[in-house]
Every structure is written in structure tokens, then in C-alpha cells.
């Protein structure tokens, strides 16, 4: 039987989660409550956090801090987070965005999790609190690798990400069959800062092209130190499938995802409108 418990602080919730493997945190409930309603989650304790820090948003500086309970609607309401609006807008319709949280999106199974793809391209860190100790930063890529292995570090209390120096250097694209709120065939995010017209420290990430969002390291290598011209885009497209492990599901086949990824990557890099 499922129980429900409220936690006044993040430390209290982290302590419960560390000692009870059947405890599950409920943020917006768009993922957990679906499992409850469909009978996949029938035992344990549902935890609700009332700590204001869980939903705090600090986006005024160069280093942005987002509580795990911040919703997609809150992101869209913040002018300071305009560079993340395309990724937040990709999450369902208005009713879903009013409930769906950043922390919940980190756990969304493929082909969901579009916002996490954007965070991965921005080299985000997740803030983790284990037990009653203090929080620590973990690279998002490391967290996702642990999630795929089934080893999670503790309670995710928030996300930290650096603001792009030039918002135009960050690009996001979601490909779906049903617009505007369909499930992703794939999603692509790229942060392409440039110095002297040449790309430096490129980061490109995919969603729905592996069991968890992944970096496109072959694409990053192809773009590094290059001007973003037709030759560089072609080289990136040739490297687009490196490290990909797409699945066949009700949305698209593995073959289709592999076929269209280079096309959509090229369009994103060229700055074409969707």
C-alpha cells in the first residue's frame, strides 16, 4: 500500500530517501502519479517537499540556480531564462508545464526528458543531498551515467548552469510527429561558443538517441576550432551517429532515428527555422 508523507525540509526528505528504498519523491507528479494511476507503483511512501528552497529560482547572475521543484511554467515566465524557453516549451502543453519540474525531467525515460538534453549541452551540474548532509555538485553527465546503471547518488535538490555569454550560441531543436507537444522522435541541443569566429569548447547533446540523454562527442570534435560553415556542418553530420543507441518504440524506429538525425543536426547548426 502507498503512503503519503510531507517533509518540511530538503534534509528531512534526503534522510528518508537514504533509509527507505521504497520512498519516492513527488515533484509535479507528471511521472510518478502516472505510474500510480496505471498500477506500476503500488507500494512505498510518496514524499512531498514543502521547503521553499525546492522551488527557488535564481537567474539574475551568470551562474543560474534552479531548484529541482521549479516548473517549466516558471522557466517560461522568467525573462532571464529566455535561452531555455524553447526547451521548456517542448515539454507537453500548458497544463503539463504548470506541473512538470526540472528535477522530474532528469528522471524521465526516453523518449521524454527534452529539458535535460538542453541542460546537458550547457554543462549543467545537479545538486545532490545524501542523507542529512550538505549538498554537493555532480556533473549532469555523471548523474545520467549513474541513472542508466541504476545507481543514484541521493536527493536531487537543484540544478546549476552557466548562462551562455551569447544567447545565440545556444540552440535547441525537438523533432516530433505531433506538434507542438508531441513525444520526441529526437531532440538536439548545442552550445557553440566562438572566439575569433571559431567554435571553442562545443557541446552537443541528443535525446531519444540512447537510453539516457548523451553527448555527441564525434560532432563536438568535428566542430572544435572550426568556423560554422557548410564544410564544418557536413563534417558534423558525418560524425552525427557516433555513440548513438536509439530504440524502436511507438514513436519511431531505430532505423528512422538514425536516418533523420544527421538531417536535423545540419538544420540546427545552420540555424534553420523548424
Radius of gyration: 19 Å
- Biggest sheet, spatial arrangement of strands: 4-5-8-6-7
Q: What's the average pLDDT?
A: 93
How many individual β-strands?
14
- How many distinct helices? 11
Looking at the overall shape, the CATH architecture of the largest domain is 2-Layer Sandwich
Task: Classify the secondary structure makeup into a structural class.
Answer: alpha+beta
What does this structure look like?
The chain has 274 residues and is of the alpha+beta class. The protein folds into three domains: 2-51, 2-Layer Sandwich (Uridine Diphospho-n-acetylenolpyruvylglucosamine Reductase, domain 2), CATH 3.30.43; 53-162, Uridine Diphospho-n-acetylenolpyruvylglucosamine Reductase, domain 3, CATH 3.30.465.10; 167-270, Enolase-like, domain 1 (2-Layer Sandwich). The protein contains eleven helices and 14 strands. It has helices at 10-19, 32-37, 72-77, 85-89, 94-97, 102-105, 114-121, 140-149, 217-223, 230-238, 254-270; strands at 2-7, 23-26, 44-49, 57-58, 63-67, 125-129, 136-139, 155-162, 170-176, 184-191, 194-195, 198-199, 203-207, 214-215. Strands 4-5-8-6-7 form a five-stranded antiparallel beta sheet. Helix 9 packs antiparallel against helix 10 and helix 10 (230-238) runs antiparallel to helix 11 (254-270). The model has no long low-confidence stretch (mean pLDDT 93).
Task: List the main descriptive attributes of the protein structure presented here.
Enolase-like, domain 1, five-stranded antiparallel β-sheet, 31% helix, Uridine Diphospho-n-acetylenolpyruvylglucosamine Reductase, domain 2, alpha+beta, 3 domains, globular, single chain, Uridine Diphospho-n-acetylenolpyruvylglucosamine Reductase, domain 3, 274 residues, four-stranded antiparallel β-sheet
